[in-house]
Amino acid sequence: MVQSLKTRVYRFLQSSPRAPPTVSVNLLPATEPVEEECAPHYNPKHFYPMHLYELLNNRYQVVAKLGWGTSSTVWLARDLHQSRWLPGRYVAVKVKANNYATREGAETELRITEHITKANPRHLGRHFVRTLLDSFDLRGPCGTHVCMVFDPLLEPLWLLKERFQGFRCAQSGLQNDNGRPPLPSLSVPRHPYRYLSLRLHCQWGNILVADRHQDLKSDNILMALRGQGALDAVAQAEVDDPLPQKRVGDRTIYLSRNEFGLDVSRLGRPVITDFGLAVRGDDRRLYTHVIQPDEYRAPEVIIAAGWSYSVDVWNLGLLIWDLLEGSGPFDVAHSGTPTFCNESHLAHIIALLGPPPLDLLKQGKESSRYFDDEGKFKFPELIPEKQGLENSFSCISGDEKRVFLNFISRMLRWRPADRSSAEKLLLDPWLQER
Questions:
Q1: Is the dihedral of CA 166, 397, 320, 426 positive or negative?
Q2: What CATH number is given for 157-224+261-432 in this structure?
Q3: Which of 31, 150, 292, 366 could form a disulfide with 304 if both were Cys (CB 3.0 to 4.6 A apart)?
Q4: d(CA 297, CA 314)
């Protein structure tokens, strides 16, 4: 009786779930793939058939869709354990697909995220890495789905970058060599690019202590929120004016609400997310399996020379390049080929950094596919005429360019051992001066 009374009081103090709205919704054509249906090898049995306003784990009520990936969907939810007299508390629930061969495989990202969450809580980098609030299993019609709960974040860097490029293009009409507008001038006070680059380097301390990310790209770095107002607006917008939906069989495919506007005052710190491919830092082995997005792939990964921490440093250099110029040096648009290929990628690295050192090639199990015994590249016709770091940047000049080139060259080097550590990068003059 006493326990029952406590339970009733506890439930009374908690927030109550909202009833689904009755407003009409526009339906999308059932034959056109949208959102997660566009993922390679998509199978509806692998994705949980979420419905808005569904209650998860008897605690989280889903109010909007935030995004999707090749192996998950992400949902904005109200935490009903928040006391009813306090402002609503929102969380992001990442629902993993269930197409893993083993339970261990399904929980890989969960375990590495738990490891990061429990890592040194006093480290500065912790504030720039996404940590776990909760986790649970969700039973679906075709199996169990691992769910992870996080603080909600804003749009990823690639989307933020596009918004600023469009803003600057509209304001000034400036374009880079590829016809794409770069980010606003580096001299603009509190410019997001300089803010991001400093914070990204701060993150590295935590990543290198806890994990090797292996998949660092602008998709996996999201901006934190300053306050919950934007989330209230997202939830209310889905009530008042729901986005079109697609209904197929037992499921509804929702469109993601990832438009948060261009109000810089609402942006917080950048946060590294998605650790499904990360490796624990206390594992000191060299790996040879292929990692990284195509255009960010380090040379030692391509020639199977074994990779470790320094692949993330290479990744970071290309990410900063992409943010600064509006595109990276190894994007498919630069390669002259319609799709990514290792030969063209290596050719562009040669154009940028010069020929690879022979000692590195001797370590690569796949080097003979691209280089002869003397280290000569087998596909010289793919090497672009425009060469060198000095000729690769159109949005900076003078002393600023000189300092920046020294900074970026410390990350983009053939030999992994020649690349600077994260700690040393933090002391680089290009960051210290600003």
A1: negative
A2: 1.10.510.10
A3: 366
A4: 8
CB neighbour list of residue 167: distance below 8 Å, 6 or more residues apart: 184, 262
Q: What is the greatest pairwise CA distance in the chain?
A: 84
- Looking at residue 166, what is its pLDDT? 47
For 399-413, the pLDDT digits (tens) are 888 888 898 899 999
> What angle is formed at CA 15 by the lines to CA 135 and CA 241, rounded to 5 degrees?
90
Note the CATH number of domain 14-152+226-254: 3.30.200.20
Q: By three-state DSSP, how is residue 272 classified?
A: strand
Contacts of 352 (CB under 8 A, 6+ apart): 329, 387, 388, 389, 392, 412
Region(s) of the chain under CATH 1.10.510.10: 157-224+261-432
Q: 212 to each of 110, 132, 313, how far by Cα in Å?
A: 15, 18, 10
- Give the integer Cα–Cα distance in Å for 21 and 25: 10
What is the pTM assigned to this prediction? 0.71
Measure Cα distances from 320 to 236, 271, 296, 412 in Å: 36, 15, 11, 11
Domain with CATH 3.30.200.20 in the chain: 14-152+226-254
Helix (H) or strand (E) run with residue 422 in it: helix 422-425
Tokens coding 301: 């990964």
The residues, any chain, with a CB within 8 Å of residue 340's CB and separated by 6 or more, are 294, 295, 332
Residue 168 near residue 181 (C-beta atoms within 8 A): yes
Which residues on adjacent β-strands are paired with residue 83?
14
Q: How confident is the model at residue 346 (pLDDT cuts 50, 70, 90)?
A: very high
Dihedral sign (CA 57, 60, 62, 67): negative
- What is the enclosing helix (H) or strand (E) of 61? strand 60-69
Alpha-carbon distance 212 to 5, whole Å?
49
In a 3-state reduction of DSSP, which class is residue 309? coil
